[in-house]
Design a protein that fits this description.
single chain, alpha+beta, Uridine Diphospho-n-acetylenolpyruvylglucosamine Reductase, domain 3, Vanillyl-alcohol Oxidase, Chain A, domain 3, 2 domains, 8-stranded antiparallel sheet, 6-stranded antiparallel sheet, about 35% helix, globular
Length: about 475
Amino acid sequence: MQQIKNKLGSRATDSPYECAHYSRDLASLPGYLVNPFFDTMPDLVVRPSNVEEVAEILKRAYDEDIPITPRAGGSTVYFDCVPSRGGIVVDLNLIQGVVKHDKTEMTATAKAGTTWSDLDQYLNPKGFASQSFPSSAPVATVGGWFCMMGYGIGSLKYGSLLTQTIELEVVMPTGEIQRLTRDTDPPLDWFFASEGTLGIVTEIKLGVRKRNPMKHFLIWLPDMAELTKILSAIKESKIIPYNLHFTDSQYINIMHKLGFSPGGIDRGCLLAVDYEGSPAELSNAELFITVLAKNHHDLNLLPEKVAEEEWTEKFNAMRIKRDGPSIIGGEVWLPLKELSGYWEDIQNMAGKYHLGIMSYGHIVTPDHVTVMSMFFTDENRILRYIFDLSVLKNIHDLGIRHCGHPYGIGLWNTPYIKRIFHPSRLKEMRERKNKLDPKGLMNPGKIYYYPPAMNPFCFGVAMGIISGISRLTGRDRWQ
């Protein structure tokens, strides 16, 4: 590590102050819940500027058995990019920029540290745009989102990022640089949603789209049951929306309290429907939504200006954090048909624990939705925070009960891996890991096996006891 530090100079640090910034992500988890079990403080943080430097770092680390944790935007909450065994954090944010844009082929090649917003800022003046992007696009990178599940805004129409990806440049754990397609060994598919556990993606070639005009609609509905019906009607239409986003009544209430609510709405649910395409396609979409509104008396179509303003706020879902010191939330991947039932169970659970649980989500495939359910807490009130964390497990359990699973794994969702993956799928993933990273140095402690501290049985029993005490004694007692 000293050799690496000498080589990179100011782009490598072992300063405790600077390394501490890499010992967490967006999750509000105090040290007393983490430090007794995991070594999240990196021994060294490096910021390579090109693939050759990444390769040299990984080769040296592999030869010396040093754990490696890749990190870019760090916009997750499950410690996907936080060390569990110390070692070296490879900060990829200097490896950025668009390498090539082929207008005929309709592709773009970008360095992995390029944010989705930067990619669109490059493409938009040329008349093109990314096919889809995450709701954290201003900070999320193209490589990072590929290594997650890669579903977000635009996925409903254009599919996951995996379906859009044509080629990857990857540095293997041994330091070997490879260019991967679907026909290589290993294929690029292996690295999708691998969360940096098989190697470091340094460049990605993906499909892009023409920058078509858009049309935005914002629909008010009285409850989630009616919203689900409207979603089904929109999904069955021949006109595929670019994006479908919903917020429930609890979320709307907080938005209104903070002065952010679209059109001043203070109750009910909102459904944002966004289309992109030719003028003829947008005209057909507008006709469809207009007829839909006329045929459903409980549906209220908000003014076009309000809908357009809501689209501009698409990256600011977490502005509601202003109403509380901390937020705990769980994101689940859910069959669309289960959405209404899941939401009802969430509200029943909220009543039992005296919580105001808010939910919002995106319809990301014709049949699936990602739902974020969250509530306010205070990480500085130790007992209350511990008891509130047990509710997070109940949120994930409800998702599983409704045929879903947590969206993303990282470290904190490893107790669920046998409920997320079929045994044959998990076996195949472990075989890939053993083949490409036999020493287990790439982002250890994630995805494939749960660490001893996260044993599913012990984890489940402990969280069950804590949530039971919280429910029986009353949450407010632990203020």
